[in-house]
Specification:
210 residues; transcription; DNA-binding transcription factor activity; 0% strand; Tetracycline Repressor, domain 2; Arc Repressor Mutant, subunit A; globular; Homeodomain-like_sf; transcription regulation; mainly alpha
Length: 210
Amino acid sequence: MSSPPRTDRNPGPSEHVATSLRERKKAKTRRTIQEQALRLFAERGYEATTVEQIAEAAEISPSTFFRYFPTKEDVVIQDDYDPLLVAAILRQPADLAPLSAVRAAFRSAFSELAPEELAQALYRAKLSLSVPAVRVRTAEGLFTTIDGLAQAVAERSDRDPDSPAVRTFVGAVMGAMLPAIFSWVEQDGAEPLPDLIDEAIGYLEAGLPI
């Protein structure tokens, strides 16, 4: 009698290639949807732009849109910055103090963004502050950011990410970072975002001198 097929084997090279191609195609589709959505928002206004119009511009169906973005608000707030920041924190030298590590990580992560990425981020930030529905989703998304940063800080410090010390630390960092982003939007990007965030965390690192 023949043996049953194995189900615990490692994927072969061809399967890795197929998975990689699928992931790249999904990433490209996600970028296209977001780019077309932001273009239409700029041309027609957020409220006047429908999911159907975004889908048509991206050459997909509305159902495909919702597979990538659960709501129209999500097409504004979703990005890859949280994993970028977490990875930058974990790359910092182990002997660097937690706040110094976070400050260096934020500086390096935001400095890596291309000018067109920063321009898109600025427009998305403007929408997040000016459109009530997007503002609500942005506030909800902050909890995800806090959780990710807490995991990274806890891993570097060998602490529990849910401990009051870690959560308070991350809350203080976010409290310093948000006004910097607000200033960036108010100035229409005149001052570089990495400089504003670095200055804000620098005040925190110095004990908030006034």
